[in-house]
Amino acid sequence: MTPRTSLGEADAPADMASRLIDRWFPCAVVDKAIKTPAGSGRSEKALFTWFASRPIAQARAAVLATLLPDDNGLQQDVEAAVRSGDPSALARLRKVISEQYPAGRPVVLDVFSGRGIIPLEAARLGITAVGTDLSPVATLGGRLLTDYPLRDWSAEPPLPFVDALDTDQTLFADQEPRLLRDVRTVLAEVGQRVADKVASLFPKDATGSFPWAYLWAVTIPCDQCKRPFPLVGNTTLRHPYKKTKDSGQSFRFIVEDESWHVEIHDGVATQAPTFAAAPGKKGKSAHCLFCGHVHGLDAVKAKGAIGEFQDALVAVADGGDTPKKEWRSPRVDEIAAAEGVVLGEQEPFGGLTAVPSERIPSGNQDTIRASAYGYSTYGDLMNARQTIHFVETVRTIREVREELLVAGYSENYANVLTAYAAANLPRKLRRATRGAKLLSHGESNGTKQNRVQVGDVFSDESKQSFNFDYLEAGPGGGPGTWSSVSTSGVNALKKVLEESPFGIPGRIRKASAVALPFRDGTVDAVVTDPPYYNMIDYSDASDLFHVWLKRCLYDVLPELFDDDGLQDKSEEIIVKRGGTTDEHRTRDFYEQMLSRAFTEARRVLRSDGHLVVVFGHSDPDAWLRLLGALQEAGFVVTSSWPSRSENASTGVASIKVTVTIGCRVAPSTLSVATAAQVDREVTEAVKAACREWDREDLALTDQLMASYGPAMAVYGRYSTVLKPDGTRADLDRYLTLARAAVRDATALRLDELPLETFDATTRFAVFWQRLYARAVVPKGEARFQAQADNLRLEDLRGPLLTESKAGFRLRLDQPTQISPRSSTFETVRAMAAAWDAGGTEAVAETMATAERNPNDAHLWAVVAEINRQLPDSDQIAKALAAIVRNAGTIGNLVYRAAETGLGKDGQLTLPETTEEIYP
Ligand SMILES: C[S@@+](CC[C@H](N)C(=O)[O-])C[C@H]1O[C@@H](n2cnc3c(N)ncnc32)[C@H](O)[C@@H]1O
């Protein structure tokens, strides 16, 4: 493949060893591989919950291209390694890499290592892989993935838990890696012991098994009748499924005098939920079961704030180990056992209260939704029985560790097994707390397969949801239980071990990227994936994990978990959404800290080392900050390689591309250039890259983002770019210019009329529609888009774009007024609305009011363009299609209107020319 963007031969800093990434990257192979299970890294990611991760294929490509010499003959092996992890290709490439670094193995550092995907790829290549992350939770995840699986544990004594080994799964135990077998056994042992300890709180079902799960609801006292009633958002328990003749199950509340109870019935729900939107209303409200009084959400929240929420057991599901979950009303003994739990005095873990009493920092209502409902500590996020269940689990993990030490295990290995057991806590937490709701797959008409599960607490990458009705998994089997999350963890570890047949353990440490614990000039390459600007609140979202992990590991991995309180956020490089007025994690903070981090990276890099940054964000401001930070730290971009590695999220226009950016330390001898010259070079470089991207079908939205790479590569060649007035041209100018160049490169024509010949507003609107159709576009993206057309977003907001919290959407409805000064785009919108209101005559009148000639080629080109971009079923598309069909009649009516002076108070004159000419 030809390079997508790179400096020319003459531009490459001469004193630095040339690497593959300078001229080539396996973009197309990465694009494909990340969609496969192996290339996506799904199994690696399942080992530990963390909120951002690179696909394995992209991490592998970045590491290989950064370390391998610039030799075309290697490209095939790199592609094979990225595509399928081809062992013989990898072995050959390993050899080439080691020959490049005669002093020994190269050192690759990831300064934002998260769960360690990039270091893992380096470690698998037998390279010295080092990862650092500020978060102790992420650091633990990195070790579980990149360090412990690559160590040799064969000298450890056999496990002391003989019973747990006596299962079918371990029939071939001897052939399994030691770590895998021991982790599985320890997890099973912990699960069994905890079940025994909490058995009295979870009375068994008729067959002597633990029920699978329990549906709870929060109750509030009614403002009117004062009686407490439960809040449920759904009364379906299991959808029907015709194929298996399963009629499904639902529940209804039965009210008797002062109390309520639940009746489970077959079939679809017959009773409305008590927490739902009233007919015709948007927001949900609580409806009293007894007197029907309606409580708005604020009134409900206020009750939470003053401690009036109570937890009540609603229903119980049996059949944890079977596919079908059978619901029933809770028995009296079950209600007593569940609701009667009193947390009381619990023996602390070292200096920590057994129940997490750490307060949820304010400003987290968006990240930890329960904190908006009066739940103020991490311990509050579960009901009392769930809390005891977790406390006992932590105690048991620690107790098992003690026994491993007594049995002669090295402290190191006992700690590693304890760490894997502790890592089951986040996996289980994801299916616990008040955010875990009952997930009933299927349809109420019985046409889809029905399945019941515990929902994931994380509603998106890092937001913990909250529900008044939530599910609690019991100590037995079934989705969301300890045994179920153990199985998924063990399977993930198995795959990691299988796919790491060689390699050396990565070294993963907790450290801030702005103060790295390494000596100057000791690292051969920094390959990293910096925080995603405002997308993920890493530490706020993972503090729930942190509070439980530290209770388990405070003295086991003290270097990670012996700190007081929550995770330290003072140096966290993010832009915090929501937050409080004194929030320090602002945009400027992000840029300054990122610049400090890159400066640190530069310090530890050898002088001929490479910095490779993997980044993707839909907000151009995020790019501006990232690229500004790189420049500030003294790096120049030398190449950039887009890959389609992110999933599109529906509804909001999101960019799917991630760019792998090759950087070098800026040479000391850069020249000064004029803005005119650099403008020209940037435009040419971007247009050349667009031709390549077009061939590879890179979407237009993705090209906009990818264009920053070539622009930066040109801009970085000069120490200063001077504008005619003697001031410096900044980065912002070139990102805007890059976007404009993408638009120009697409040579958008409407009915053979070049886009440049339309008025600016129409140009903007047409390009926007091509890019995003009817999706909501994030605000930053919209601002840059307007900038590329020299328009101000402030002027477009309202007349052209509707604004919502999520961003802007293009208006296609009727404009508030129409006049001869209206843009072509607005005139067409008015015509579509006029068709619906009054057919041909109304359209003609609109055209006449806008003083548009019936032969106005630009007008008809926009009519056709909007029509083409909309689905046939769209009302506006239908109107425009009808207008086209009736163009002749409309034209005659417009002329008649002109002749009779109808259009505009008898003042109408049609333009002389049929062409709009815009310079
Ligand atoms: C995009 S994620 C990295 C994900 C990683 N590549 C993976 O695949 O798991 C960015 C990481 O930067 C970390 N981070 C934020 N501020 C930091 C700082 N000052 N020093 C080090 N790491 C930091 C976050 O904790 C987060 O794990």
Automatic annotation (TrEMBL):
Keywords from UniProt, A to Z, are: Methyltransferase, Transferase
Entry GO MF terms: methyltransferase activity; nucleic acid binding
Q: Which GO terms describe its biological process?
A: methylation
The protein's name is Adenine-specific DNA methylase
Superkingdom, taxonomy of origin: Bacteria
InterPro entries to which the protein is assigned, alphabetical: DNA_methylase_N6_adenine_CS, SAM-dependent_MTases_sf
Q: Write the signal peptide boundaries.
A: none
